[in-house]
Design a protein that fits this description.
Jelly Rolls, globular, DNA binding, 4-stranded antiparallel beta sheet, WH-like_DNA-bd_sf, Arc Repressor Mutant, subunit A, cNMP-bd_dom_sf, transcription, alpha+beta, DNA-binding
Length: about 270
């Protein structure tokens, strides 16, 4: 079910409030910020390379990707954003950053003017702190992605991403950490993980055969959470979110990735 604008704003407030103490006045300011609701189909650019923007994009529904593109058309996705995420909050201080945003599925967003966000931050120091922390978390996630790309095997990269997305989907109320719908194609996943779509399919097959993950009609089900986080060397601290499903009961608690038959050298 598509999210309402009010619910997306509340999720954003919950994210801010989980890291910074906000009073009712600050929260009312966020709820009353002006914005323009935009809908877009999948694969539509929201911010193009080199654009100088005067707004930040709050995701209401769907998945938005941040990416960099090479001259030959190849791209690297550097972030996924779902409902309740402000995809380019850093653009308030750097309107032209070189990063592009694209709707990876049909999306609804709210364009919030930089002017209004700056005024709110100037008047309410707690909001300025909250915005700063939100940008800092985004940087933490990017740093972890770099480590994954540079030093982990293909299957470990995928395991780590699936665990991360599970926690983030749960935070947004879009599922649970062990079962969620993922509106991304194998090409999208490959562009985030530095893999071809053929390689992505091979990694999914390995995880499925090891009874760690199943995928059906874009629904991801984590059959063995402990094995998944072990394979991906996943530690959620970099996400700075609080969820209740971190210690999920494993369907096969007695087994770990060492005996799962998954090669860590892919």
């Amino acid at each position: 079910m598509p999210y309402s604008s009010n619910l997306a704003v509340q999720i954003f407030l919950d994210r801010l409030g989980s890291r910074t103490k906000l009073g009712s006045e600050e929260m009312d300011v966020i709820r009353s910020l002006p914005g323009q609701k935009i809908t877009a189909g999948g694969d539509r650019d929201l911010v193009r390379p080199g654009d100088s923007v005067d707004h930040a994009c709050l995701i209401v529904d769907g998945v938005v990707g941040r990416f960099g593109q090479m001259r030959d058309g190849r791209r690297q996705i550097t972030a996924f954003y779902v409902a309740g995420h402000m995809a380019n909050l850093q653009s308030v201080v750097f309107p032209s950053t070189g990063a592009s945003l694209q709707a990876l599925s049909p999306v609804t967003i709210i364009r919030m003017p930089h002017k209004a966000l700056k005024a709110a931050a100037a008047k309410y120091p707690a909001l300025a702190d909250a915005f700063w922390r939100e940008c800092a978390v985004d940087a933490c996630v990017l740093a972890q992605w770099i480590v994954n790309l540079g030093r982990k095997s293909a299957v470990a990269r995928m395991a780590h991403l699936l665990a991360e997305l599970g926690l983030r989907m749960e935070e947004a109320g879009l599922g649970t950490s062990h079962r969620y719908r993922l509106e991304l194609t194998q090409v999208h996943l490959g562009d985030a993980l530095g893999l071809t779509s053929v390689h992505v399919n091979r990694v999914f097959r390995q995880l499925r055969e090891a009874k760690v993950v199943t995928v059906s009609k874009r629904v991801i089900e984590i059959c063995d959470w402990n094995a998944l986080i072990s394979i991906g060397e996943f530690d959620r601290d970099y996400l700075h979110i609080d969820t209740k499903c971190w210690d999920l009961p494993s369907h096969r608690r007695e087994e770990n990735h060492a005996s799962s038959g998954i090669s860590m050298q892919m």
